[in-house]
Amino acid sequence: MSEAAPAQYKQKSRKGKKAWRKNVDVTEVAAGLDEVRDQIITGGVIAEKPSEELFAVDTAGDANVQKKVQSRHKPLKVDQILAQRSAVPAVSSRKRLSEMGNEGTRKKSKISGREYDRLRAIAYGGEQTKKDVVQTGVDASYDPWAVQEVKEEPQFSFLEKKKPKVEPDTLKRAPVSLAKDGKKIPAVRKPAAGKSYNPNFDEWQALLIKESEKAVADEKQRLHEAQLEAERMERAAADSGSDSGEESVWESEWEGFSGDEDKPKAKRPERKSATQRNKIARRKEAERQAKHDAKMKAKEQQVQMIKKLARSVEEKERSRDAAKSMQLAIQAEAEGTLDVEDGEDLELRKKQFGRIPIMEAPLEVVLPDELRDSLRALKPEGNLLKDRFRSMMLRGVVEPRRHIPYAKQKKYTVSEKWSYKDWELPAAK
């Protein structure tokens, strides 16, 4: 006999009250209720339990599997190093209550008040700093031209004494301007109006015509010099050809001619003895030594005279330069500073500061096709560093130097000493 409730399985529709039936199939609902009752009896409904009670995470793994893996694959050295852990715990970075004061500040270390004051003086400067701290380097008040007293050691008394450093006279003088009239040149001159990115048409056209005429004149000068050089080379080639022709004619005329036939034969000298030859050699050596001594004496006198003249000329030039520089300085102070624009030609004096001439200013004129109507399309030109350096050379602050892009480096020869070849045969015992 079945315990299930009566049911009618074949029902097409249950819509409407007339289609309702009493005996409906509830087997699935009854099975679910029975399963829930069993779960409650065994410990609770599984769907209501958290994941921690239902699942367990295996972090250790199977020991047998680990043994098999270790036997097949040896662990890496880096893994072995990382696996080593120190037994000493790490230093904690948090503040502990035992180290905090009443107001929440850290307590002072347990040192004496005198030591604390000494360390504080070292940290914040003071007289104690000079005694405790070792100063390294060069002090700001170091004078490179000061005379330094060096103690002479008796073992090196035979050596020549070093000459003291002498401060140059020009170090105390003001820089002399290279302008021909002696006026001071401003460090930053006023820029020409025609060099603007959006210049006035008249000023820009005047500047363009001026620079064009200057470029044409330079090109004519270059072509003239090239023509003179070509003519000189042609004349040299013609002169060398004529000299070779005359020499060949002279050789053809005198070829085969000898004037030794008309000369009488000289008497053959007798053979000298060894004593006579030695006497003649000693006399010639004495004459040669006397001539050499006379030449050296005359040369020494000339050297002394040249040194004396050079010293006097140098003193005269030094006094003249000092007077001239003082006069130029007074004149510059009286007349003021030159008011020269960047585009104007500055006439320089012939005697400049340094052997190398000052580099020419770069051409910074914008051509008609390079003019732009906006700052976005503007192409920046010029170099402030080069302009500043040229201004310093014009004012006589620095000496012009030639740019050497690839300087010669000192060559080193590396050789290996074969010390194993330096051996001696041991003496027999």
Automatic annotation (TrEMBL):
Intracellular or extracellular location(s): Nucleus, Nucleolus; Nucleus, Nucleoplasm
Keywords: Nucleus, Ribosome biogenesis
Keyword Acetylation: no
One Gene Ontology MF term: 5S rRNA binding
Segments of this protein annotated with the region Disordered: 1-20, 87-112, 215-303
Biased composition (Basic and acidic residues): 215-237, 283-300
Comp. bias intervals (Basic residues): 11-20
Ranges annotated as biased composition (Acidic residues): 244-254
Domain of life: Eukaryota
GO BP terms: ribosomal large subunit assembly; rRNA processing
Pfam families in the cross-refs: Nop53 (PF07767)
Gene Ontology CC annotations of this record: nucleolus; nucleoplasm
Family: Belongs to the NOP53 family.
Role summary: May play a role in ribosome biogenesis.
Protein name as it appears in the record: Ribosome biogenesis protein NOP53
